[in-house]
Amino acid sequence: MRKIVLILLSFLAFLNATAQTPKRTIQGDSLLKEIVAALPSDTIAVPVIDKPLFFNQNLVFKLRLDSIQKIVPLSYNEYVQNFIDIYSRRKDMMGKMLGLSNYYFPIFERALKAYNIPAEIKYLPIIESSMNPHAISRVGATGVWQFMFSTAKAYGLTMDNFVDERKDPIQASYAAAAYFRDAYEELGDWLLAIAAYNCGKGNVTRAIDKAGSRDFWVIRPYLPKETRDYVPAFIAAVYVMNYASTHNIAKQMPAINFKTDTIQVSHFVALGDVAKAINYEETTLFGLNPSYKKKIVNGTAALPKRIILPRVEQADYAKVYDVLNADIETERDIILASTDDVRELRKNKQIVINNKPINSVIFYKVVPGQNLKNIADKYHIEVQDLKVWNDLKSSTIIPGQKLKIYNKEAAPKLSKPAVNFLTYKVKQGDTLSAIAEKFVGATVANIKKINGLRRATLQPGMVLKIEKG
Q1: Is residue 9 predicted with pLDDT exceeding 70?
Q2: Which CATH architecture has domain 421-467?
Q3: Sign of CA dihedral 377, 381, 383, 387
Q4: Residue 249: what pLDDT?
């Protein structure tokens, strides 16, 4: 008992001495506590991952991400935290995204569900385009899903003088869902499929080979700079959209904030005429139908076109009916668009011969009823030139097929060898894109065609024919 009393007296004496000691510079744990106390309760500046401060914050954000994770892995690390900080500070932008999500998310969800793609992919257009159907990137990617011209064509979207379906949220969403189906089938991981959407499956496959891993966070250093940030930005966007109120982000109602009807029209109809019939501004109708470049819906009996309009009042039915069934007078020829991919345009840059600029190559789309001789006569070239330039094994061509046509002065002088093949035995982990990279001139589409493959799935031990380049 006496020892206990002595210990207590010693402790009280120590406390008294400490209270009388002048305050000095705060060090150690006390400084850390002050720093933490001064931070906002939800977001912090991105620290280095191995510091205790980041570890303490890790638990809060990781638990939140875990709570909303469904199929797509929502990893948490310093890269994700960085973008959470960025998006949570952009309160005006994210408030607008919340408002637009009321209109666009149901469209995205229907398309994704049709291809059995995780619904979380619906957040991708936030970082792609801020859900703006008229968004165009510096290299030509267009629409809410930011499709490049060649990829859009490959997935069935139409671009001509009347429409650009990359700007159609409905059509573009189904094309995006089809792309994700193919990317996931080949890569087997949703974060890798998201990365491929940004930089292409080939870049992702090469990164996998270099890193010796199929984990996005392991292969990340081997990906293009934009793609390294793309996946963490996506995860951060998912987080902020689900925890907006926690960060004092308020939903902003968009201009499109009403119920709509969808109808098919088989006539050429001006959006401005429809707008007048239902007492709306033309800009409203164009906002609902952004893919019609001339603000004209070019429907025909053979190919009706969709038009979305605000729900029509019963009193306006007669006026709307008259507008939708009366063709307007306008030029009706359909002219397919050429690429607006800046990278392709650079490849096809003009050359100069005899002081006259000419295009080194054009791409011609075959129309019904044409044969190689028709096309050769049109461009004053030989049929054999067309066959050599396009690796044609016969004179058969089909409508919609694209042919390379060189200016005669600029055409490469080629001597086409007899076609022959190599064989390749599929190994564990091989993909079509990785195999195509091994052989000059090989493409995934060509390998699939030569071998009669309908899907991109490969089995170890399969023997593939590869056309010699």
Answers
A1: no
A2: Roll (3.10)
A3: negative
A4: 97
pLDDT at 52: 36
Residue 101 and residue 103: Cα distance in Å, rounded?
Answer: 5
The residue ranking higher by pLDDT, 188 or 415, is 188
Q: CATH homologous superfamily of domain 348-406?
A: LysM domain (3.10.350.10)
Give the separation between CA 224 and CA 418, rounded to whole angstroms.
38
Q: What is the pLDDT of residue 221?
A: 96
Q: Where does CATH 3.10.350.10 sit in the chain?
A: 348-406, 421-467
325: nearest Cα among 294, 287, 299: 299
Listed in sequence order, the residues at least 6 apart from 377 whose beta carbon sits closer than 8 Å to its beta carbon are none
Q: Which residues contact 90 (CB under 8 A, 6 or more apart)?
A: none
> Which H helix or E strand runs over 109?
helix 91-114
Position 220 scores a pLDDT of: 97
Q: Which residues contact 231 (CB under 8 A, 6 or more apart)?
A: 191, 194, 195, 216, 220
Q: What is the pTM of this model?
A: 0.65
| CA-to-CA separations, 131 to 38, 78, 122, 199, 240, in angstroms, rounded | 36, 26, 10, 20, 16
Write down the pLDDT at residue 294: 93
Q: Which element (helix H / strand E) includes 464?
A: strand 463-467
In this structure, are residues 467 and 450 in contact, taking their beta carbons and an 8 Å threshold? yes
Average pLDDT score over residue span 191-215? 96
